[in-house]
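A protein record in our archive is deliberately plain, so that people and models can read it alike. The record that follows is passed on verbatim for readers who wish to inspect the format.
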Amino acid sequence: MRHLLKLSLAFMALSTAVQAQNLIPDSRSGGKLLLTGGVSTVEGSGGGGIATWATITGYGEEDGIGANAHATFVDLPDYEFRTAGVAVGLWDRVELSIARQEFDTGNTGALLGLGQGFTFTQDVFGAKVRLTGDAVYDQDRWMPQIAVGVQHKVNDQGVIIAAVGGRDHEGTEVYVAATKLFLAQSLLVNGTVRWTNANQTGLLGFGGDANDEHEAQFEGSVGWLVSRNLVIGAEYRTKPDNLSFAEEEDWFDLYAAWAVNKHFSITAAWAALGSIATFEDQRGLYISLQAGF
């Protein structure tokens, strides 16, 4: 409850800040359809909750700028995960993002020998460029919107990461994403290939004693637009298994994202994150609040 209260207060602060954007001319607010820029992933990029999309964050069009800020909380049986960040979309072509992630081991920290409430913190710096296509307006052809992106991640627990077999406390990932919206069927489909050697997306470092090579991993999303304000769907993300001390499993979620308007959205999901640091069946509630324009 303490962390949910913090998220609520953070969202109120974000909401207040976004009200200032009403002073900006409408030409910069953009004319994109609701939710077509996606919400914020756990790494700060535009997309779903755990999968990055090819869309550019915000509602700015070719001659405009869009931006958002998010706060996300995931409550798992043995851990808590929190992230907050900001992202800017420039001319519906370039996206820049930054996010801070906190992985709180809570009572589990003592069982792992790390100490009660031990927390891993990671900063994620991202950039994405749309190469071709338009997920919304290219309805007369099969070509999806395609984007390439890069994320550099820096973890603050290099000593612990080395102790569990991780090779490095920071790493860089590259991905290619393709997103297509079928308006007639109210269906959104996304596929992303990410080259990474991250352990638990970098929260347990990069590379390991079992494998240190970057490998191609898949992120997929499907969403059904129930109405112009609501989308429901599912996501799946594969992950490398680099550390011999603990098996790493793929991630899956079932989500619903509700756009109150172009300034505020709420995403809720049931997330299944598998085994994390020897603790099995990490499933729980995912809540994300986003404010932007």
